[in-house]
Specification:
Layout (H helix, E strand, L loop, with lengths): L3 E5 L11 H23 L4 H13 L20 E7 L4 E8 L5 H11 L4 E3 H11 L12 H13 L29 E6 L5 E7 L3
Parallel strand pairs: 3-4
Antiparallel strand pairs: 1-5, 2-3, 2-6, 5-6
Length: 207
């Protein structure tokens, strides 16, 4: 049986109007992550391992709303979420409210693999992360200049801004349409391995 993989950078589309110096690093990261996942599948890795691997890479990239690039809360902090599902046996794991875990997707997998639970949040999730010895950093690791600017603009306009688009705040808010570049989302990956195993993973910095 063949294998397949798909991924997305989420947190809104990457609009064609985005300056090349900001657009190209995002596209390059997506291409690199796609190649990484494809190589792992060709080498016989399981779909579950591959989706975790790819999403970890996206979490480590400051250009996306996950992990290191997480959108800031109104208080200027981060609250990250992630979930993973193994289609082979329908197991899943999820975490939310994380503020120090470098790779939330790996903690979500540990919830799935190491606990009887499906979901851990906030202090409980952080305590579990420490117990499992996953990599932890202080808040400064996750806060980028781009997201500080985005938060400042959002506060000035009194509205949420979580994607790549620089809004024209003088215009009224309109419902999105098929051509809208302000649609929101989160990073993710889905894969099918050579044995037919299916898995998916997603991670976000929230709003």
């Amino acid at each position: 049986m063949g294998w397949a993989i798909a991924l997305h950078g989420g947190a809104g589309d990457i609009p064609r109007t985005l300056p090349p110096e900001r657009r190209e690093p995002r596209l390059a990261t997506l291409r690199r992550c796609l190649d990484l996942g494809a190589a792992a599948l060709r080498a016989g890795r399981s779909a579950l391992d591959v989706v975790e691997l790819v999403v970890r890479e996206l979490e480590d990239c400051p250009h996306f709303n996950a992990g290191k690039g997480s959108v800031l809360t109104s208080d200027g902090t981060v609250e990250m979420e992630a979930s993973v599902m193994d289609g082979t046996d329908m197991r899943c794991g999820a975490v939310s409210g994380l503020s120090t875990v470098v790779n939330p997707i790996s903690l979500a997998r540990l919830v799935m693999d190491k606990t009887p639970h499906i979901y851990l949040a906030f202090d409980g999730a952080e305590a579990f992360a420490r117990d499992q010895g996953v990599e932890i950093r202080d808040q400064s690791h996750f806060i980028t200049e781009e997201n500080i600017e985005r938060l400042r603009n959002a506060k000035e306009a009194n509205r949420v801004q979580i994607d790549y688009t620089q809004y024209n705040y003088t215009q009224p808010i309109q419902a999105p349409n098929d051509d809208d570049n302000s649609r929101t989302g989160t990073v993710g990956c889905v894969a099918v391995d050579a044995s037919g195993g299916l898995a998916s993973a997603t991670s976000t910095g929230g709003l």
